[in-house]
Amino acid sequence: MSVERIDGAPLPMRSEHTAVLSDAGNVITWGGESLAGTGRRADGAVFDIDASRWEPLSPSPLAPRTRHVAVWTHEGMLVWGGAATEGSLSPASDGAIYDPEADAWSRISDAPVGMRSAMAVTSGSWVVIGGGDTDGGGRRTLLLYSVDADQWSRIRVPLRIEAMSAADEGTVIVTGGGDDGAVAVYRVRLASEQLEAIPVDGDRGDAPDGLGAAAAPDGTVYITTTSSRATRLMRVEPDSGTARVRTFPDVGFMAPVDVRQSPLNRGRMWWHAGRLVSEAVGHVTTIDPESGDMAATALYNITDDHYCGAGAPAVMRGATIVVWSGKNCYEGDASLVKRGVAVKLPE
């Protein structure tokens, strides 16, 4: 595992910002806040991983905000929602798309409800947003946005959404705590707005401490649930009617979502080289879903200045994970930092 430091960003340090990977393989970061509760940002920059070079984005039409979502679409980077009123966590419902080729923004229609601290995934020409806080409080709302039609719809789901992943095109898998507290899994078919419960074949265990979801290239979605006693992997194959469970006792995989803190400090999970890769609060953990073989490291143990990037989003391109800015989390130091790292995993 190799580590390279990232410096030279034309942006002030921040946390609770977003980062996406463009189709050109560059990282685009935007928004966030420079101080807790104040100093919200409406600026961003593109980081060229290969050249280690930054370029600022043109000004956005959106108000400064934090705890928003950003996701790559076929039209560019979509930024939406979050907390956009200074000194308030009231969720916003507006958004815009940034086209890096033209270095230009265009507004999109407002959603039927605002949301902050949410997650977003793309599937085909759809963006699915959920797991965030609304003015109504609960986290059981999914927002579906058609990029081509610039139209929104809303689905109520019978679980507290904690993780989700695109599967095959036009389908998203969502998971979280059901009414009984145990993990529940649903498939959402976007074009028809159809919601299907997926039975779990195997021991779901107790209510988990951690959750995550990521898709393999063939559309199979893996859901990780973790507790102090075991790591469980649920495998949902395309159009399968069942989520099959494998249990690995005493395997301490660190899932990207800490259910006890959610929706704060959510990390990300990806599929790479036959393994699931999780990044959460500066910890990188990988696991082989067949054997349970696991490897883990903390960023502050492999960087020369104990950087960990808490409160910063992670992006993965190939075998490289990129994290920029955020907070320290070593020996009680929670100050913001203006640096980042590119961590290359073994192939």
How would you portray this structure in words?
This protein has 347 residues and is mainly beta. Helices cover 1% and strands 46% of the residues. The chain has 1 helix and 32 strands. It has a 6-stranded mixed sheet with strand order 20-24-23-22-21-25, with no helix packed on it. A 4-stranded antiparallel sheet has the order 1-32-31-30, with no helix packed on it. The chain starts with a strand and ends with a strand. The mean pLDDT is 92.
Set down the secondary structure blueprint.
Elements: E1 2-6, E2 18-21, E3 27-30, E4 33-35, E5 38-40, E6 44-48, E7 53-56, E8 69-73, E9 76-80, E10 95-99, E11 104-107, E12 119-123, E13 126-130, E14 141-146, E15 151-156, E16 160-166, E17 171-177, E18 183-189, E19 194-197, E20 200-201, E21 210-215, E22 221-226, E23 230-236, E24 243-249, E25 257-258, E26 268-272, E27 275-280, E28 283-287, E29 294-298, H1 299-302, E30 314-317, E31 320-324, E32 340-344
Parallel strand pairs: 20-24
Antiparallel strand pairs: 1-32, 2-3, 3-6, 4-5, 6-7, 8-9, 9-10, 10-11, 12-13, 13-14, 14-15, 16-17, 17-18, 18-19, 21-22, 21-25, 22-23, 23-24, 26-27, 27-28, 28-29, 30-31, 31-32
